[in-house]
Specification:
about 675 residues; alpha/beta; Rossmann fold; Alpha-Beta Plaits; 3 domains; five-stranded antiparallel β-sheet; about 60% helix; about 10% strand
Length: about 675
């Protein structure tokens, strides 16, 4: 490899990729299309700017390895189980149908069975990157067609690895039954051995490295795991991408999944840009100009055939027709993993240059068409008056729950950054009030211990945008930063404010002198430890000396007022959240026969009727912060506050309108602290 020449090639490649990103962003088109066009432009059939395209393809192999690693990370068995019906039945039928469609169609055009099956593999996969981006931008991830699309994409991601193993077998050389069994046997044995050995070893190593709080060390460790497993599979005569996939699977169910993903995604995206540019370089513009209608006809045929197949499968699963058509419109294109299959077929000698160019052009055209097709189908359904039904839940008794993590954003929750003593206290308070929260912490043992107790916490560095997106920071109601590392506090504040400009941001800092800087970095409320600690010591001292609690609280309020007024920057005075004497909190869960079911809180006017106040309404695990005009439903949990008498009356009133005997409810008393 000639260093200076190769560096020059990289400069050209990255400049072209950056230009493509800018143009695609302005046109609101997927970046993958821009990479393909950039490859065509700088490739040998156009400007011919690269000296040695083979070196670029070598780098592209790194992108494939990292891509398969992140696929393994994203395929959580728990998530797959929740979407099992749509993924296994829907995804399985779609893949099998498109492979048959592509293979038989190719045979009719004179191709041998080997290339025909590879073409079927190529056409069966859709673009995860494009579809999830469009669904997320449209807010349709939780819709019936969004859940079906995600489930089918998940199954496609899983099937990529077996397809890659099967492609070399289609050459016909040594592909008898015994050799096929031997290859699959080696793959399965390798997966089992690696997963058994790594189940404990890899998490143990990752725990100890992450405990060092060294980002460089953690990144090097993840890279070592990925490429060592890739090397082992290569020694076994299998694709190195399979080893990377296994490494992702091993980590996917551990606490390190989010952090490993966050650290590797930038490098994956970098190498994938090289990968797609190298694919674009395969296109011969002169050949396409001589016969432009063939790829256009193929693209139209593929999108229609695949779209109607998926629509039929989704309809068969019992979903409304509108959801079925919209799922078909979303998944009709050819995806990025298809190019991995294509390169495997080229390496095996099954796909020649002319065929690969036609397939790449067909895939690019279907990707281009996705945004327009999805918008067109939606507009058509609206005009026909049926679009409203596509947003209603499926009538199936075994419904697919919404996806997790980045694909299923929470709303109106609280994000706790740091789950030490302060973070845990806030978590317990939020849980008692029925307010959902997500926590982030860098200590793997903390994460392991509290995840076992059901706390929604992930291991991650809050300075990384992907970690913040995993806890849906952009749609959160508030965030609380409570960490002990002052050096990490500043970049966390900047990153949180960048990802969620409108969030209410609370920060705990050590010294009052840091408040001005924290406010400049985007904090809304800053609580300094040194002031609050001194107030608490003063309160306990007065109590020890026999001062009554009401006098202590009055003096504490005066101390706080004077202390915060002396600060160099104006800071909102922290509210004393202690409940007055005799006030309690009660949770009441509504049943089908309750008087209040079907009425809104405005209609009930609970405070006037009973004296109790509604703090929040929890429905299906989500807290509604402004539920005044929402009709109550069976299973809703109302969090009430008031004295004992008011809470008893409220329980009776919600149940029977004051006519039936009171039901037993659990009352949680809040101790009064100074």
């Amino acid at each position: 490899m000639k260093g200076p020449l190769f560096v020059g090639d990289l400069v050209i490649l990255f400049v072209a990729a950056i230009a493509a990103i800018i143009v695609m962003r302005l046109l609101r088109l997927p970046s993958i299309i821009g990479y393909l066009l950039a490859g065509v432009l700088i490739g040998p059939s156009a400007l011919g700017l690269l000296g040695d395209p083979k070196q670029v393809k070598d780098l592209a192999e790194m992108g494939v390895i990292l891509l398969l690693f992140t696929i393994g990370l994203e395929i959580s068995p728990t998530r797959l189980w929740k979407l099992r019906r749509e993924a296994i039945i829907g995804g399985g039928l779609q893949i099998a149908g498109m492979v048959l469609f592509g293979a038989i169609g190719s045979r009719l055009f004179g191709f041998a069975w080997g290339p025909a099956v590879v073409i079927g593999f190529f056409l069966s996969l859709s673009s995860t990157a494009i579809v999830l981006r469009l669904l997320s931008d449209r807010g349709e991830m939780d819709s019936p067609h969004g859940r079906n699309s995600l489930a089918i994409l998940l199954m496609q991601d899983i099937i990529v690895v077996p397809m890659m193993l099967m492609v070399p077998m289609l050459t016909g050389e040594g592909s008898g039954p015994l050799s096929l069994l031997w290859i699959f046997g080696k793959a399965i044995l390798l997966i089992v051995v690696v997963m058994v050995l790594a189940r404990r070893a890899i998490p143990w190593v990752m725990d100890h490295i992450s405990a060092l709080r060294s980002r460089e060390g953690y990144l090097l460790m993840v890279a070592g795991i990925v490429f060592s497993t890739a090397w082992l599979t290569m020694l076994a005569g299998l694709s190195p991408a399979l080893g990377a996939f296994v490494a992702g699977l091993v980590i996917s169910e551990s606490e390190h999944r989010h952090l490993a993903m966050a650290e590797t995604v930038p490098f994956r995206d970098l190498f994938l840009a090289v990968f797609f540019v190298s694919i674009g370089m395969m296109l011969d513009l002169r050949a396409l100009a001589a016969d432009p209608w063939t790829p256009i006809a193929l693209a139209v045929g593929v999108y229609l055939g695949k779209g109607f197949l998926i629509a039929g499968i989704v309809r068969m699963l019992g979903y409304p027709g509108t959801a079925a058509f919209r799922a078909g419109a979303a998944l009709g294109q050819v995806g990025e993993f298809s190019f991995v299959i294509l390169l495997t077929g080229v390496s095996a000698g099954l796909i020649d240059g002319a065929l690969s160019q036609a397939l790449v052009a067909t895939a690019a055209l279907t990707m281009f068409a996705t945004t327009g097709v999805m918008g067109g189908v939606q507009a058509m359904l609206k005009r026909s008056g049926e679009a409203a039904s596509s947003t209603t839940p499926s009538p199936e008794p075994e419904e697919a729950p919404p996806p997790e993590d980045a694909h299923g954003a929470k709303r109106d929750h609280v994000v706790l950054i740091g789950y030490g003593y302060g973070g845990r206290a806030m978590g317990r308070t939020l849980a008692a009030l029925g307010i959902s929260f997500e926590a982030i912490d860098m200590n793997p043992r903390t994460v392991q211990n509290y995840r076992r107790d059901g706390v929604p916490i992930i291991l991650g560095d809050a300075t990384h945008p992907d970690i913040l997106r995993d806890v849906s920071i952009a749609s959160a109601r508030a965030a609380v930063v409570s960490i002990n590392d002052p050096n990490a506090l500043r970049p966390i504040l900047q990153r949180v404010r960048h990802e969620a400009p409108n969030i209410r941001l609370f920060v705990r800092t050590r010294f009052a002198s840091e408040i001005s800087e924290m406010l400049d970095l985007g904090a809304d409320d800053v609580v300094p430890d040194e002031l609050e600690t001194s107030f608490q010591i003063a309160a306990r001292l007065m109590h020890t000396l026999g001062v009554p609690w009401d006098v202590v609280r009055r003096h504490l309020a005066e101390l706080r007022s004077e202390g915060y007024k002396m600060l160099p920057s104006p800071v909102p005075l922290p509210t004393d959240m202690a409940l007055p004497d005799g006030v309690a909190i009660e949770r009441v869960t509504l049943e089908d026969s309750d008087y209040s079911v079907g009425l809104s809180l405005v209609e009930l006017n609970l405070r006037r009727e009973t004296g109790a106040s509604v703090i929040s309404l929890v429905r299906a695990g989500d807290t509604l912060f402004d539920p005044a005009h929402t009709n109550l439903e069976p299973g809703d949990c109302l969090v009430l506050s008031g004295n004992e008498s008011a809470l008893r009356e409220a329980a009776v009133f919600l149940s029977s309108g004051g006519e039936k005997p009171k039901k037993e409810k659990e009352t949680v008393h809040k101790p009064v602290e100074g």
